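Help wanted!
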Amino acid sequence: MTSLLGSMISTLGMALRYRPLIGVSSQVSKANALFNPELTTVRFRYHADKVAKGPVPRRHGYEEKLFQSGLLPRKVSVDKALPMPTYKPKNSWNEKRALFGQNDYIDILGPSNEISQKTLHPTQLLYHVPPWLRGVQGNEYQVLLRRRKFVQKKGYALGHPTKWATLNTRIKKLYTYLNHKTKSPFWKHS
Amino acid sequence: MVCYLLTKPTNPLNKKQNKKIFWLLVEEQLPTTIRPPLPIIHSRKLAFPPKFKAPRQVWVSNMDTVEEEKLGLIDLHPEVFAERPRVDIIHENVRWQQLYRHVSYANTKMRYEVRGGGKKPRQQKGSGRSRHGSIRSPIWRGGGIVHGPRSPTPYFYMLGFNTRLNGLRSTLSAKLAQDDLHIVDSLDIPTDDPSYLEKLVEERGWGPAVLFVDDNDIMPLNITAASDSYGHYNLMPVYGLNVYSMLKHHTLVLTLAAVERLEERLLFHLNRNDAASAGQKYRLDSV
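Answered by r_m:
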């Protein structure tokens, strides 16, 4: 028995394991500490207690270079703090915010035409969106193509020549990039 | 304004005093509503009678007086007002309402759009410095942005028809279940004084923000004038009802006409024969 214990203690020579056994008198106690199924370790330190004592410091060793306290920046000649805009809380109940989302369900809740059985659609009520962009879902290339289609009818090339040129250049560049530099989408591969 | 005539004058000789009392009575009293014996509203016939769920019963109140007077009890269709609230569907609806109308106009210039940068800054070899082709390349300060925002970027998408329909049902059910739904006979109030409306809402314990919903989009004059000075009391027709507004306002007040119209519309969509064609995916330029 003792030889077994002795061999255990000698073979398991790791400092970490042996350290708590320094000062323990007998070999039996040491052996018990090493291997005893009836012994269990009990947690007595909790991170929550540390947090409860106060804020747990982070970035140990880091020195904050920004001012955390003290006077606000001010001019030396005239001892007056630099002006900061006065805080004005937003009005959550102005007309726009109070009635946000109104008529979004008009195709469900609105009356339908008696003959055609059609209702209004919420895309028809997007007054603040440019008319060519209402109900449009797409990437930049698709959006630009649609814009060009709508805009060329109204003589855009004559009225805004630089913007017309930029639009066409952008479309050309995107065409080259998308078709020669990127892979086609997964659903296009056979 | 109702005038009350004095049947017995207090002092038959003092006409001036009688006149004074007469006008005092006229000015100080609000008209008392004369009602037939309660309950006035007895029952409601439900369209598409529910087979497996019991209808929910709600009190019908008045708007004539500050104190609540219950005029009767009506049934509400469980398919509309007693659907198990799906929080994920409500969230999807709110997200859709916030995003589908959003267009980002943020823009950054590409290297070929930034002013300048056509000329090679220095010779390729000999100077000892790094080689460059343009002063507006993305690695330069003041140069173009490679994958930056490109104006205009639409965030439009259309939520499925049934998802939106169920969003409405879930929100209405949640409102009823949480005692935030009230039914009134009509939105006629006796005065256009804003304080009357405030006292009414405070007395009945309706939330800070109230959304009044009626069938017609032209509301009675008094309530329009009274609620005009408050941003948190809002009037809406039935076709304007939406999930976001119902969640933003604490209390939802529906008139009887609004309840009828709302149920009719939602039950129509739930029981229509051509639901598949009606709930098809939205296609651009189809509407």
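OP: Thanks! One thing I noticed: The CA atoms of residues 9 and 120 of chain A lie 85 Å apart.
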